[in-house]
Specification:
alpha+beta; ten-stranded antiparallel beta sheet; four-stranded antiparallel beta sheet; 14 strands; 29% helix
């Protein structure tokens, strides 16, 4: 049950074993005397909702989706991938269609109808609080900040694995990284800093530059810290360097060249800051995690690993394909080789690799 903002309304969320929300039951009334108001059933393609139905299984809303910010269908959890919203179902057809418009972070800012006039408009602060909204569909449309569903009764956003409260800039529940199994693994690996992680924080408080596809980005980023001996600061700096270099060389973020450049530079810079071994370990585990839990297509993960190898080679890491580098020894004491290449050298090497076919740019 989701905590209501209105004491006379209650909402019950039914979640499948996969973790996906399957039904939402809305009630009105008072304690001990609740009346079922509405039922919403969700139809999915992977982690992306493509249709809503009522309690009688009649379609009420349909969503048309395309590639998200990752350039794949749901590598970014569908953020930035909404194309259209259709309602008014009758005899197999939809009578009304509205098209979505989003900003660079995938936040829905505008819906336009078939007459090319505004149907809904939204403005947010950096953490997703709605500053203003207008239009005939502003309330009915539930996909807003980060292209995620807004739950009006509780004012929470549903990300897949967790609910997010924009008013306090925190998740409703803690990151699974805090579970006992992860803590035991951290102790086994000699990590002492796990308690310093904020398990409720949203994208490390950097909402202008980062997104969270399914509510697990904190976990995905921490996998490398726990298992590979890497540093959060090194990983963030490397990722930012990769994004900046990729955007400068190949401005279309949906292009395979941009994604290849991003992986290459980030992996190279991580090798410089944290060592070749941790860079290899973090890159591999992150792609595996996104494939298994983040909805990333297998081919995208394979391409990411390949371009991570190219980046480590550009940084000067040894071994076949810049692999098989030692990670660490003792209680977190990193003995891996740290190459001394500069950012400019790595960027030039990666761009040459993308332009001349040494990077993996196959779809």
């Amino acid at each position: 049950m989701i905590p209501p903002m209105n004491p006379h309304r209650q909402s019950v969320e039914l979640v499948a074993r996969t973790g996906r929300l399957r039904q939402r039951l809305e009630y009105t009334g008072n304690i001990g005397d609740w009346t079922l108001d509405s039922t919403t059933r969700y139809i999915y393609d992977g982690w992306r909702v493509i249709q809503e139905r009522d309690g009688s299984n009649v379609p009420t809303v349909s969503y048309t989706r395309g590639t998200d910010l990752s350039g794949s269908l749901e590598g970014a959890g569908g953020i930035g991938g909404l194309l259209a919203r259709s309602h008014g179902y009758s005899s197999g057809n939809w009578t009304t269609h509205n098209c979505y418009h989003a900003d660079g972070n995938g936040n829905i800012t505008y819906l336009v109808n078939s007459s090319q006039t505004v149907a809904a408009s939204y403005r947010y602060d950096p953490f997703g609080n709605t500053l203003s909204s207008s239009g005939s569909l502003a309330g009915a449309n539930v996909y807003r900040f980060s292209s995620k569903e807004f739950h009006a009764t509780s004012s929470l956003y549903y990300y897949g694995y967790r609910f997010y409260d924009a008013s306090v800039q925190r998740w409703l529940n803690r990151d699974p990284i805090g579970d006992l199994g992860f803590r035991l693994l951290a102790l086994k690996k000699g990590m002492a800093g796990l308690d310093e992680l904020n398990l409720f924080a949203f994208v490390m408080n950097k909402s202008l530059n980062e997104i969270d596809p399914l509510g697990l980005e904190g976990l995905a980023g921490s996998v490398g810290v726990i298992c590979c001996g890497g540093s959060p600061a090194g990983a963030r700096t490397a990722m930012e360097a990769g994004l900046n270099a990729a955007d400068a060389a190949y401005p279309d973020r949906n292009s395979v060249e941009n994604r290849a450049m991003r992986h290459c530079v980030a992996s190279g810079m991580l090798a410089v800051s944290d060592g070749c071994g941790p860079a290899e370990c973090i890159g591999t585990k992150r792609e595996d995690f996104q494939n298994n839990h983040g909805g990333q297509p297998p081919r995208e993960g394979t391409r990411g690993k390949n371009n991570n190898r190219v980046g480590r080679a550009c940084a000067g890491c040894g071994g076949a394909n810049a692999e098989n580098n030692p990670t660490k020894s003792g209680r977190g004491r990193n003995l891996s080789v740290r190459p001394a290449r500069t950012l400019d050298q790595i960027v030039a090497c990666c761009q040459d690799a993308v332009d001349n076919g040494r990077a993996d740019t196959r779809e």
